[in-house]
Specification:
By secondary structure, the chain is α/β, with parallel strands linked by helices. The protein is built from 7 helices and 15 strands.
Amino acid sequence: MTLSVCIVDDEPPARRALEWLLSHETDLRVVGMCGDGGAAVTMIKTHRPDLVFLDVQMPGGDGFDVLSALDRQPPAVVFVTAFDTYAVRAFDVRATDYLVKPFSDERFALVLSRVREVLTQRPPAAGPLVVRDGHRTYVLPCDDIEWIEAEDYYVRIHAGAQQPLVRRTLQSLLDSLEALGFIRVHRSAAVNLAHVRQVRPLPGGDAEVVLASGQIVRLSRSHRTAFHARLSVPLPR
């Protein structure tokens, strides 16, 4: 299987160096390169790459702005930067890895090994979720569902402008959606991990999960360990 790759860096020599390194990998193909945040969003939406090597500081929006502007499940991301101060934030937005320039060939090889492992473990694309709200039937692509909240004996499914209220339990929906990247964050809420952009700790052990739309969902202390394990990042200290 050949994986498509985009390179985003505001320094042309850095872009060429990554392109040269990747040209030696038979299963990776560079499909686009650019040097600013706005162009990066357009390029990623156009090519839908499997992997993006993404600079942090650049004109037209930083690397985190680029990820927040993507409207669907983001590709695997490796941040490449001269600064190590963004590492915690990078893993908060589910980066696959974080490369600090300059890096060795051995470190780059480790990154590619991790990328391949992550991408080959991705679940297959799911069919839509079909639910009824009163007399209406909704066909919701699972990628479009941001989060689900329990309301008494019903659940509200948040998928952009479509927010049907369905007579089902939260657990019954999770039974069919957990394998697709959904996880409970509170006794009355679950989120789609593909839409998670930030995790902000709160006093008392709870946290806030910030989704791509800007929606904030409470992450209770009792669900934090399982949540961070699914993200494959350590709990914040």
